[in-house]
Amino acid sequence: MSQKRANILLALFVVVFVLWQYWGTLSNAALFGDDYMNISRSTDLSWQTHLKGFLAPNNSYNSRPLGNLLFILIYRCFGVAPLPCLGLLFGLHLATTFLGFFVALRLLQNKYLAALATLAWSFNYVTAVNVISFNLIFDNLLAFFWTACLLLYLQDRESSSRLKYIGALICFFLCTRSKEVGVMLPLALLTFEAVSWDGKGLIHESGCITGFMQVVKRQWPFYAISLIYLIFFLGKSEFGPTSSPPPDHPYYMKMTWETFVEGMKFFLACVNFGRALIKSSMALYLAFAFVILWAALLRQKILWWTLFTFLITLLPVIFFVNHRMPIYLYLPFFSLSITLVGLLGHTLLKVVRPWKSVGYAVAYAAITLIFFQYLSMNLVSIGFVKSAGRSASINVNQIVTRLKLWYPTVPANARFYFLGIPAGQPTPELLVPYMPRLLYRKEAIVSSMVSETGEILKKEASQPDGSFYCFDFANSRDQGSENYIVDRTSELRGLKSLEKPASIPRPGGKVP
Fold first, then answer.
1. How far, in whole angstroms, is CA 449 from its chain's centroid?
2. 415-419: strand order across its sheet
3. What angle, rounded to 10 degrees, do the helices at 137-159 and 82-108 form?
């Protein structure tokens, strides 16, 4: 069997393993609050605005034009059917896993370690949300095009293929149009050349000055694209350092060294299954110094680069004071997994080198045992993620199914009222306002959450028609049951016709 074919088969094995573990999530596909919000915001913008976003973001929303364009395309084709959305999301995750194996293989120079590093990233509780929540399509697109660009760049660096260079440049352009973190990729490419300075490749063979000029010639388009993006992003984006303090805005940056350190502690705790891995600043400094020194002793300077890439891919989000989330680790964790697997694997292989075949067999057995222990710990955490996603999916799908069952069609100017907040939903405050207008494909529909029935009757008193609908989540504590959502439309319409705007009891006898 040829070397190339063996590599492809091993990459496919990794993909099939991930597919097997996450396949069940597609049977409970659902769209949640952020999904409806993003779809709604996409449909509010014209095609011209979407296309202009590819040239340069002219406002905060268009800083992610590729994902937003996918939102509107899928909605135009499939409405709010969740399966096409989750299928695309999962497909991107699998494609990134496949490409990621070949990137890891080039960096670690070991098939087995490359497979383990890729699995450590793709089969991880931190990345599990990225196969069940469509609003994270921005992160999946970013990781896919980042990995594709890096792989094509490395291949072009080895073989000087103009076609692969152009492909890398296109992937980078799409990377920056997927999410803001993409703008850091040229810095990663430049530092890769730096750590490869005295190794095989462009600079060693051509001399320092000539090699440096060739690197500049190869990389300047990447920096030109980044500069254009940064000019617009830093001046316009709601996600940047110009964001407002809370409670005015959900994204608030505080660009200080203290914030960086606290953010790093948070994300390292996420890697450690939510438990604090490093508690003091000094421990953080010592940990990074230890990794750098360890990689130097192993003569694996490429692990310096993967650690540095982990840091720079966190930079655009690490300064958030009030919006730190594990999902931001989706791309950075790929570099960190290569770093950790590389350190462990190369250390054991170097220790057993004097014992040759027997020693290598023992080393690989030890690596395998450690890895399976890691997988078993992930299985527990992934189980919680799957369980929460399954419960939320059942409930939100019941809302959609029952609304369409009770009212197959509604007038264009319909008003929807929801009493209370649906329990067990991620961002329910976004689900309720946007879902009805997208479900019925009528932009004039108004939907809101209210706390009492009297509020509904007061608002409807000035309306000349009875085209309003009311639903209650009074029994939402019993999630997944038939009473998760209750139709109270006839009851409220009857009260309006009797002109009794007083509050009435909810089911169970309580007056709101």
1. 28
2. 446-450, 415-419, 468-472, 486-487
3. 30
What does each of the 512 residues of the chain score in pLDDT, given as a tens digit?
678 888 899 999 999 999 988 888 888 889 988 899 889 888 887 777 777 777 765 555 567 888 888 998 899 999 999 999 999 999 999 999 999 999 999 999 999 999 999 999 998 888 888 888 899 999 999 999 999 999 999 998 888 788 999 999 999 999 988 988 898 999 999 999 888 865 444 444 555 666 677 788 888 889 888 887 777 666 555 555 555 555 556 677 888 889 999 999 999 998 888 777 788 889 899 999 999 999 999 989 999 999 999 999 999 889 888 778 888 999 999 999 999 999 999 999 888 888 878 888 888 889 989 888 888 888 888 888 888 888 888 888 889 999 999 999 999 889 999 988 887 788 888 888 899 999 999 888 999 888 888 889 888 888 888 889 999 886 555 565 667 888 999 988 888 877 644 444 555 544 44
Q: At what angle do helices 3-22 and 111-122 cross, to 10 degrees?
A: 20
Q: How far is CA 329 from the centre of its chain?
A: 8
**Residue 449's closest CA among 417, 476, 493?**
417
Q: How far does CA 307 lie from the centroid of its chain?
A: 20
**Rg of the chain over CA atoms, in angstroms?**
26
Q: Shortest CA distance to 281 belongs to which of 254, 260, 251, 253? A: 260
Break the chain into its structural domains and give their ranges: 3-387, 407-497
| Dist CA 363 CA 371 (whole Å) | 12
Whats the size of the chain, residue-wise? 512
Q: How far is CA 436 from CA 22, 80, 204, 384, 432, in A?
A: 30, 10, 62, 29, 7
